[in-house]
Amino acid sequence: MAAPKKGRSASAQSRPGRSLALILIAIAALTGGMFASGHTTPRLGIDLAGGTSMTLTAKNEPGQPNAINKTNMNTAVDIMNRRVNGLGVSEAEVQTQGSDNIIVNIPKGTNSKEARDQVGTTAKLYFRPVLATEVSGAGASASPSPSASKSASGKSTDKATSSSSPSATASASATTQGRAVTDALKAGSSPSASASPSSSASSSAAPSASASVDPATAKLQSEYAALDCSDKAARATAGVGAKPTELTVACGKSSSGQWQKYVLGPAEVSGTDIKKAAAVFDTQSAAGWKVTMDFTSGGSKKFADITGKLAKNQTPQNQFAIVLDGEVVSDPYVSQALTGGNAEISGSFSQTEAQSLANMLKYGALPLSFKLSSETTVTAALGGEQLHAGLIAGAIGLALVVLYLVIYYRGLSVIAIASLGISAILTYVLMALLGPAIGFALNLPAVCGAIVAIGITADSFIVFFERIRDEIREGRSLRPAVERAWPRARRTILVSDFVSFLAAAVLFIVTVGKVQGFAFTLGLTTVLDVVVVFFFTKPLMTLLARRNFFAEGHSWSGLDPKRLGAKPPLRRTRRASAPVDTKEA
Questions:
Q1: DSSP states of 188-238 as a string?
Q2: Weakest-pLDDT range from 30-34, 166-170, 264-268
Q3: Peptide bond before residue 316 is cis, with ω within 30 degrees of 0
């Protein structure tokens, strides 16, 4: 009798140790990476870790009474979401409430303070020519302002040195300031106008007392003379209501920490002309962190035009101010036209400050201005109690599942419990690693998703075990029964898990906030169920099928043929043929 040929199933059956070794190595590598990264626990959402809840109320801009509408509110929510995500803050909830309110919930953790500070920032950016500037506040001395640089090719960089405001003196009187501003406005109202030394803010020479001053200039003079940028309330109202096409006053802080006040010309370039912004660390100089900007084609031309005009003037009218939401964040001077289509904002930025500024520039300005109506601190006490109750419920559910497996499947429950343990380890390690990687945070709905996954995983084992039992009932021994049952069980498991994953994906896409945590956890555990069944449960079952305890159908193995009502194996018998009468034939 010829020996039966060995197929692929026999080959796969003979080497189940490879699959087990592979998944164990993967678990060891992931666990090692978790400890090496220092993130040994999953990040928690606002309901478990606490955080800040803010209510932002939209306010109408001057001349735009109908700006508060559904479209602008939805756009503001989208930009706020992207800003917070750009900072790596996970599980932040940004949603509208009513017609003019936005509720922002930011969990406690890394960068949560920066997210709270900038989430409602309008981020309207303008490049304005500087007409006059001086240090604001009695006893202050002038200090260099942040430097700017540009790179046309990305390899060579033409640096522009920091400028200082020589006109800033603590003894400057309001009259002298008014005269200086008048000179600056006359000589510098157009960026291309040349400025003589006497026309700069540092000039002490006053024009004739009879010089006529128009009302707008007089108003600007008085605002500039009265402006004290060391006062927070004064900074908040400086230049409020000024249109981009109008002259205005503004405040800004120098690299030494002193406040300076400015008279600024009309905006020549806006934030919408910026195509890309990023925070980078300058390793070639002592500048440290800086923000690089790439302009659009139209913005490149505007920036080249304004810097070309400013380069002809003298200090401070060869400076341009980068104004963000009414505050000067940088005031570099230029000595030549910057035509490369990019620019840098550099100074005494920390990494967080540079990333925050680049984040706001990258995601654009909010279509509306907002005021902070309320801000409350959310404690984790209530969430902790709910988590405790949820963990108790999960433990009870897991205990009931284990009890059912032990009573009904007996020895097979060892495989199921071991598989549940492997799935739990993988879920925990991946949650801990996904926190710093993609900003995943564990909240109460996510915990619910993990508890629901226990049933999904146990269902896969039950399908496999029942297929094996069906084969044994047909009269087959255990080892052939395992290999014949696996293709049928595998098909059912894949279809079931695909439906669960599809439901989780749809739920993740169409929902927002905490419900996404439930959907993400459900999808993650569904994928892990497939991995565990294929690389752990099946190979382990194949190995144990070679043991006499299971192969001989011990009464406690869960595979006893008598208890399962197995049919006796079919045996074919050869019937004796009747003698043939040759004569009759």
A1: HSSTTS---GGGSTT------TT----HHHHHHHHHHHH--TTSHHHHHHT
A2: 166-170
A3: yes
